[in-house]
Design a protein that fits this description.
By secondary structure, this protein is an alpha/beta fold. Helix 6 packs parallel to helix 10. The mean pLDDT is about 95. Strands 3-2-1-7-8-9 form a six-stranded parallel β-sheet, sandwiched between helices. It binds adenosine-5-diphosphoribose. Adenosine-5-diphosphoribose binds next to helix 1.
């Protein structure tokens, strides 16, 4: 059985918790309804901060009403079981929701940041911010207003903790991508790196991702079914 597992999750793992995905084939994805270039770039924020902040207020309120699903809970169970066997699970998520944490996952890397945190552009302080965020809000650390933004990674910005991610990938023996379309780099490139490092690779998704042919094993279906079944199989092996 794999002893060191690297899991990458995307919006698909939170779909059944009621949080939208970005590029679903049914054309209902977030980016089919909202223009990412007007809402998820530093330029958009500089041009119209209130419009960008209102978009994230909407997503933050949705998140506060959402609950983790069986897929999030299965990954937390896998992390605990592996730890108990001297192995470990590194969970890297592209998602900015906190459903993995609320399901009990601990070793977690949010490479695209966290919706429930705000960052001050003046002093760099990052704080939990579970309520609406307005340009008039003052930073609790430096006291100045007008500099707070969601602590998320926008298009054109550098994802977070890439060194930790590369180190975890090098030290794993199994790479698993769950609920991600493989459309956005650098995350979409992790499976190719994993193969180059000699890891086995597995995709758990609703439909084949753009990079599906790079996976040794592929299982399709809703994450709330495929992820618990996969974890049960892994732990009974
Ligand atoms: N169970 C499992 N997978 C699902 C489910 C489900 N119930 N519903 C949808 N999916 C799959 C879709 O088939 C698709 O492959 O989840 C994937 C969602 O893909 P995207 O919407 O592109 O989300 P993601 O891959 O996480 O996007 C990556 O793009 O816009 C940026 O920063 C944003 O982190 C995001 C990044």
């Amino acid at each position: 059985m794999a002893n060191s597992i690297f899991v990458l999750t995307g919006a698909g793992i939170s779909a059944e918790s009621g949080l939208g995905t970005f590029r679903d084939k049914d054309g209902q994805g977030i980016w089919a309804r909202f223009d990412p270039m007007k809402l998820a770039t530093p330029e958009a924020f500089a041009r119209d901060p209130e419009r960008v902040l209102a978009f994230y207020d909407l997503r933050r309120r949705n998140l506060l009403n959402a609950q983790p699903n069986a897929a999030h809970r299965a990954l937390a169970r896998l992390e605990q079981a592996l730890f108990g066997r001297g192995g470990h699970l590194t969970l890297v998520t592209q998602n900015i929701d906190d459903l993995h944490e609320r399901a009990g996952s601990r070793r977690l890397i949010h490479m695209h940041g966290e919706l429930l945190k705000a960052r001050c552009q003046r002093c760099g302080a990052v704080r939990l911010w579970p309520e609406d965020l307005s340009a008039a809000d003052a930073c609790a650390d430096c006291g100045r207003a007008g500099g707070l933004r969601p602590h998320v990674v926008w298009f054109g910005e550098t994802p977070m903790r890439m060194d930790d991610i590369d180190r975890a990938l090098r030290n794993a023996d199994l790479f698993v991508a769950i609920g991600t379309s493989g459309a956005v780099y650098p995350a979409a490139g992790f499976v190719a790196e994993a193969r180059a490092y000699g890891l086995r690779t597995c995709e758990l998704n609703l439909e084949a991702a753009d990079n599906a042919d790079l996976f040794d094993e592929r299982r399709y279906g809703p994450a709330s079914q495929t992820v618990p079944a996969w974890v049960d199989e892994l732990l009974s092996a």
